[in-house]
Amino acid sequence: MTTDRNPRIDVAEVERMILSLGAIGAHLGTGVWRTAYSPEWVTANALVADWCHKAGLTVRSDAAGNLWARAEGTEGGKAIVSGSHIDSQCPGGRYDGALGIIAALAAITALKRDFGPPRRPLELVSLCEEEGSRFPTAGFWGSRAIVGKIAQGDIETVTEANGGSIAAAMAHIGLDPARIGEARRDDIAAFLELHIEQGPVLEHANRPVAVVDAITAIRHTRVTLTGEQNHAGAFPMDLRRDPMAGFAEATSALIDHAHRLGRPAVTTIGSCLPYPNAPAVIPRSVTFTIDARHPDPAAAAKMHEVHAALLHEIAARRGLELKMEVQFDHPACLSDPGLVAALESSATRQGIPAIRMASGAGHDSQQLAAVCPVAMVFVRSAGGRSHTPEEFSTLDDIVAGIRVLAGALHSLAY
Amino acid sequence: MTTDRNPRIDVAEVERMILSLGAIGAHLGTGVWRTAYSPEWVTANALVADWCHKAGLTVRSDAAGNLWARAEGTEGGKAIVSGSHIDSQCPGGRYDGALGIIAALAAITALKRDFGPPRRPLELVSLCEEEGSRFPTAGFWGSRAIVGKIAQGDIETVTEANGGSIAAAMAHIGLDPARIGEARRDDIAAFLELHIEQGPVLEHANRPVAVVDAITAIRHTRVTLTGEQNHAGAFPMDLRRDPMAGFAEATSALIDHAHRLGRPAVTTIGSCLPYPNAPAVIPRSVTFTIDARHPDPAAAAKMHEVHAALLHEIAARRGLELKMEVQFDHPACLSDPGLVAALESSATRQGIPAIRMASGAGHDSQQLAAVCPVAMVFVRSAGGRSHTPEEFSTLDDIVAGIRVLAGALHSLAY
User: Fold this and answer.
1) Phi, psi of A68 (to 5 degrees)
2) What pLDDT digit, counting tens, does each position of B349-406 carry?
3) How far is B248 from chain A (nearest CA, A)?
4) Does residue A225 share a domain with residue A300?
5) Residue A2: pLDDT above 50?
6) % helix / strand / coil in chain A, to the nearest 5?
7) DSSP label at B64?
């Protein structure tokens, strides 16, 4: 299957790496619990560092705790980088994040073995705290450090659930939090990230691999509808101002709107809290969060307009007070067309049936896009599951993804 | 306004009693916080006992802590009883419960003064823990003791939030919990309870008083819809089994059904809990409670049928698992037609414009109905508010209600 430009991937070695890394912080059999800067995280990075060292790469840790492994380029210049994050959800699976690091190492090892040293520097990166699973407000911590998006104050204000600061956690493993600014890089030519899909699109399309042309825009809007709290028995229906009725109508309308727009639009109401949340009391208020996503910036903007109009109309008609607060608004991240082309030609020339799709989840790539062109490879997820010990991708699909990645790295670095 | 059969009510004394009783356990200005067997509750009952003693009544406390005050009947026989509960919500207002005790005392005092001793025994009762605000599973505790609906085991298993048993609370104020069975009575000929409406029906009808012809049936059904938990970004709309979408549709349909039935049907979804209740996760399940009420037993049964059919259809169509569990099911309590007639003629001959209505809330009367005929008088509630320090009824409306009660007590006991 390989041609001159496509290295042979060591399938057994990939499987061995998945199992070895999955054993560190193993949880509920097939899961892992490996939060940033924890003992399990330190051990996992040490194992990756050891593998990279044995592969002849130059290994270093940066000021944020990201692990880098580099093959120097015979012609120098900016680096071609691949990797992903090594932290997990609590618990997560073996593949989310870790697979991108294993893929980069398998690809770089194969390229070096089959084609010798690259023309341009070729690097692997193991990124830190993508999930925000230990420090909820520190999502993409490692990739944000690389692009300079960590303010000095963050070091003190970012805390975990028990109140401990991220600065203390960094210091505990020998990092100097005050120096996190030194993790910044401006010498990256391209970043390619392989990741599990985390959704069912590839499974339903019956394809092993996708090339990601965009990461979706995500907006979280916190909404409160307020009516009048009253006795559930003594208040006739016709005299109520019931925010639960307004919430139900709004939720149906918001969800139906995403259905009408069709893929890739999604809208989720995942959390809601009535007050006082008592069975025999007409609630005073219902607070809920709208998670709305679309990879096309114009379509996302239009979606938000429809949502606001719909909520205003329902609240006004029902005599409810409406409060809307945008909690965050991540813009869409478009992949670099040149990198998408490189990945797609790699798939084509190796006979790997890849589709093109947008990512509905956020990834480190969207942070690194601030300093370099990016693109991603998705590998089919069984049942579309992720953020659970049940997540699974077959070795065949994984190796197909690594081949697509390796072929593209060859075209960029050799 | 009074005729031969209608005593003159001492309006100033009624106002004084409302303020004096409202001062015991006073909370947030106009509210009260007076839970069963608490020091405030003991003080309030002592004050009522003192008033009754001064009114020439024979006062006693029963084994449950209910306070009874009796005017012997010249011809003996079973007693005509009026009263309500003296415990409050946390906090409640001055009127919910307490007003029924004040009304009974004002009526009996006036009857004795204007007409001498009654032919039949005439009693006032101050009932214990109607609200269940201190002991959540002990609602109607005092009236249940009177009708023999407290099992011996309840004494040990009924606890307050901090774990203390109701037996300990009773013993603390000198009651012997083992003797609660002695509170039972089978010598009551009729029970008339005056209570604030707790809803806005009288206010909207512009009437001071209602005669209650039924207390509604109440059913609480706990429902869980279970779908598939997935990533809010990575899962396309068309592949979701989202229990929040099912919950929203069901809630709209349940509430709309009560609107279509019209008064007196009501349906409330006051509590709901998605799991895991995270903004970026399609929930695995949504659990909620349906509070459905109708005073007509046949209409209530039909309503429950429609609810079940509707939930089964929505769950099946959306591929959701449905679990329904009836938490409790209080049947409707129909007022005694003779007592309703006595109250309505009393209103008519005193020129008090009373409407007839069902109670959407539960009351001690529905417990006492197990041993005697019952009926109720409702007094208009400002804004329909109750279970809040804001609850309020005007002195004019209160006195109108007491006149209706007193006239009926005259026709029954004299």
Assistant:
1) -120, 145
2) 999 999 999 999 999 999 999 999 999 999 999 999 998 999 999 999 999 999 999 9
3) 4
4) yes
5) no
6) 40, 25, 35
7) T
> How far is CA B139 from each of CA A203, B90, B126, B130, B155, rounded to the nearest angstrom?
55, 14, 15, 5, 13
Q: What does DSSP assign to residue A258? A: H
Q: Is A241 strand, coil or helix?
A: coil
Does residue A4 fall inside a structural domain?
Answer: no
Report the residue from B216, B271, B282 with minimal CB separation from A268: B282
Structure-token pair, residue A179: 């120096």
Is residue A60 in some structural domain?
yes
Mutation for testing the A interface, residue in B256, B269, B357, B378 having most A CBs under 10 Å: B269
**pLDDT on residue B4:** 65
Select from A248, A267, A282 the Cβ nearest to the Cβ of B268: A282
Report CB contact under 8 Å: B230, A385: yes
Residues of chain B with Cβ-Cβ distance to A360 below 8 Å are 231-236
Work out the pLDDT band at A232, boundaries 50, 70, 90: very high
CA separation for the pair A68, A187 (Å, rounded): 13
- Give the closest of B200, B265, B273 to A235, CB-based: B200
DSSP state of A117: S
Q: How far is B32 from chain A (nearest CA, A)?
A: 18
SS3 of residue B377 by DSSP:
strand
Domain final position from B292, B313, B330: B330
Beta carbons within 10 angstroms of residue A353's beta carbon: 12
Statement: residue A263 has pLDDT above 90: yes
The shortest C-alpha distance from B24 to chain A (Å) reads 25
Q: Do A401 and A261 have their domain in common? A: no
Are A274 and A137 within one domain?
A: no
Please judge whether A234 and B280 are an interchain contact, meaning their C-beta atoms are less than 8 angstroms apart: no
**Taking 80 as the threshold, does the pLDDT of residue B5 lie above it?**
no
Residue B204 reports pLDDT greater than 60: yes
How far away is chain A from the Cα of B118, in angstroms, using its nearest Cα?
35
Residue A156's pLDDT is 87
Question: Hey, are the CB atoms on B361 and A255 less than 8 Å from each other?
Answer: no
Its domain, for residue B407, covers 11-215+332-413
B279 and A271: CB-CB below 8 Å? yes
Same domain, A162 and A203: yes
Nearest chain B alpha carbon to A274 = B271
Tokens of A281: 């009391």
pLDDT tens for each residue of B39-86: 999 999 999 999 999 999 999 999 999 999 999 999 999 999 999 999
The predicted pLDDT at position A4 comes to: 66
Instruction: Determine the distance from the C-alpha atom of residue B331 to the mean position of all C-alpha atoms in its chain, rounded to a whole number.
Output: 14
Nearest by CB to residue B248, choosing from A252, A281, A289, is: A252
Interface size between A and B, measured as CB pairs under 8 A: 215
pLDDT in tens, A158-214: 999 888 999 999 999 999 999 999 999 999 999 999 999 999 999 999 999 999 999
Asked if A94 and A129 sit in the same domain, the reply is: yes
Q: Is the dihedral of CA B361, B363, B367, B369 positive or negative?
A: negative
Are residues A38 and A186 both part of a single domain? yes
Q: Which of A244, A270, A386 faces B282 most closely, judged by CB atoms? A: A270
Confidence check on the interface: ipTM exceeds 0.85, yes or no: yes
| CATH code of the domain covering residue B271 | 3.30.70.360
Contact at CB, B281 and A266, closer than 8 angstroms: no
- The model's confidence at residue B1, banded by pLDDT at 50, 70 and 90, is very low
Nearest CA in chain A to B391: A230
Question: What pTM, to 2 d.p., does this model score?
Answer: 0.89
> B245 vs A239: CB contact, 8 Å cut-off?
no
Checking if the pLDDT of B3 tops 60, the result is: no
Between CA A357 and CA A212 the distance in angstroms is: 5
Residue A28, pLDDT score: 87
Contact across the interface for B249 and A248, Cβ inside 8 Å: yes
**Which amino acid, B360?**
G
In the predicted model, what is the mean pLDDT of chain A? 96
Contact B199 A230 (CB under 8 A): yes
**Do A15 and A145 share a domain, yes or no?**
yes
